[in-house]
Design brief:
single chain, alpha/beta, six-stranded parallel sheet, 4 helices, 19 strands, binds coenzyme A
């Protein structure tokens, strides 16, 4: 008999309460309203703003992610560094408890990781399998192409791709981008968002009306 695999069903509807798949491992994180964290995600000491979502197999460490971000599957945000300047870069020098080598871990090393946060703005789209390296800041409205390795800051509303990631083009003119940032629609209360949802479909009309 052939085995028939049933796909695991993700609830179709989001809710004001964050939707977090059971298979996730989450340590000391914050998720805003209407957020969704996909299957097999691993998140450590990170925050994810209202309406942002991740697809499956996403890793996020020590990062701040804004509102309305779209994070594709297999993305890694802030893959943590090992201590390359030590004699050994293996876990034994800082995860000392696990190996019963000392009574405590090397907290100073973990603090160093914490001090190299990734910061991602609002309405950022991160493509499949992209990697965002430590300390990088990504501006509002930016796009990171599939498979990119982002090692430098990304300007608002610019599209970057490749390894290492380089700008391809801007989504809009600098003038329009600046106006969108000024409006900061991502901070609108829910009621305003409901009333003006269709305005988000046409950037020229949006600027005329709200800019
Ligand atoms: C980055 C991206 C948004 C650009 O889209 P676009 O503006 O329509 O770009 P184009 O297809 O016109 O390509 C423009 C140039 O960038 C290159 N390029 C596009 N995407 C690239 C990528 N991911 N990596 C490297 N180069 C890329 C193209 O080869 C082309 O180069 P050329 O000018 O030398 O010919 C898109 O290609 C992408 O990667 N989207 C992510 C899709 C995804 O991961 N979806 C997951 C589900 S959410």
């Amino acid at each position: 008999m052939p085995v028939i695999y049933q796909p695991i069903k993700t609830p179709a509807n989001r809710s004001i309460v964050p939707l977090i798949e059971e298979s996730c491992e989450i340590i000391n994180c914050f998720a805003g309203e209407w957020t969704a964290i996909g299957r097999n995600n691993k998140l450590i000491e990170s925050s994810i703003g209202d309406y942002s979502y991740t697809m499956e197999d996403v890793t996020i460490n020590y990062s701040e992610i804004g509102k309305f971000c779209s994070i594709a599957s297999h993305v890694c945000i802030n893959p943590v560094q090992h201590p390359m300047d030590r004699v050994s870069q293996h876990h034994i020098t800082y995860r000392r408890l696990q190996y019963q080598l000392k009574e405590n871990d090397d907290e100073a090393f973990f603090d160093w990781r914490r001090s190299h946060k990734v910061k991602i703005g609002h309405d950022v789209w991160i493509g499949h399998g992209a990697i965002i390296m430590k300390g990088v800041e990504i501006g509002n409205g930016a796009v990171v192409g599939a498979g990119a390795v982002v090692t430098k800051n990304v300007e608002p509303y610019s599209i970057v791709a490749g390894v290492p990631a380089k700008p391809i083009r801007k989504r809009f003119s600098d003038e329009i981008a600046a106006k969108l940032e000024k409006v900061s629609w991502w901070d609108w209360p829910r009621e305003k968002l409901e009333n003006h949802l269709d305005d988000l479909n046409d950037v020229e009309l949006f600027i005329k009306k709200h800019g």
